[in-house]
Each structure stands twice: as structure tokens, then as C-alpha cells.
């Protein structure tokens, strides 16, 4: 890109990273992310979220967790979407304990778990077979005035 006189910006990098992720090439996306940073373009929350989602969905949970911690250290304000991306990936790949710990971290960070974060966590706990814990979490959602969506209740009736 630069050899043609075109200078990439954050949006260009985000587009390229997203495209690589959609093509199932997360490690190449991670390299572009590193290039972005080393070329003087600090990643923003969108950049981090694209790569975090890509790594999480494709089973690179350790890399995703490292990226998540780098986000924290960068000074970016993490949001519920960011947490949910990682919690969902952890649950899908059997890292239930880590997902529960990350869910607990929300309160420490002063974030109120959203309906989506709670239902993602409960789904993961159910898949782990910890039905008593899932029931407690479900009741806590009700106490926190965060009832799960009807689709969640209908979709989990088999547990």
C-alpha cells in the first residue's frame, strides 16, 4: 500500500484486519494489527474488538485473553460488548472457569452486566453441567432487574 504512495489509516487497517478475520486468517490479522501499531497507528476500541472477536470465535482463546489484557493496559475503556466477545469465546471452547471469572470482573470494574453478558455466561455454565450455578445466576439476573430474553428461556428449556 505504501509503495504506491497510499498511506493507510486506522480505518484502512480495521478493514484489512476484518477482511482477514472473515477469511479465516486470524494469525495474519494479528500480524497486521502488530504492523499497525509499529507504524504509528494506535489501535482503537473497534480495532481491538474486531481482532478479539476473530481470535475468540476461531478458538485462539489464549491470544484473545492476551489481547484483552493489552486493551486494558492501553488505557482504552472496555465496554460490555468487549467482555461479552471474550466470555462467549471462552464458553464455546470450554474455558468456563475463565468465563465466570471474567464475568465476576465486571462488577469490580464498575460495569453492570447486560442481559447478553448474563445469558452468555449462563449458557456456558449450563454447557459445563453446573445447573445449580446456572440457576443461581438466573435468579441473580432477576434480582438485578435484568431478566433474560424470552428467546433465551425458550432456547434453554432442554437443560
Structure, described:
- The chain is an all-alpha fold.
- The chain has 2 domains: 1-78, Tetratricopeptide repeat domain (Serine Threonine Protein Phosphatase 5, Tetratricopeptide repeat, Alpha Horseshoe); 80-159.
- Helix content is 70%, strand content 0%.
- The protein is built from 9 helices and no strands.
- It has helices at 10-22, 26-38, 45-57, 61-74, 80-92, 96-108, 115-128, 131-143, 150-155.
- Helix 1 packs parallel to helix 3, helix 3 (45-57) packs parallel to helix 5 (80-92) and helix 4 runs antiparallel to helix 5.
- The longest helix has 14 residues, at 61-74.
- The radius of gyration is 18 Å and the shape is elongated.
List keywords for this structure.
single chain; 159 residues; mainly alpha; Serine Threonine Protein Phosphatase 5, Tetratricopeptide repeat; 2 domains; 9 helices; 70% helix; elongated
Give a topology summary.
Layout: H1 10-22, H2 26-38, H3 45-57, H4 61-74, H5 80-92, H6 96-108, H7 115-128, H8 131-143, H9 150-155
Task: Describe the structure in brief.
With 159 residues, the chain is mainly alpha-helical. The chain has helices spanning 10-22, 26-38, 45-57, 61-74, 80-92, 96-108, 115-128, 131-143, 150-155. It folds into 2 domains: 1-78, Serine Threonine Protein Phosphatase 5, Tetratricopeptide repeat (Alpha Horseshoe); 80-159.
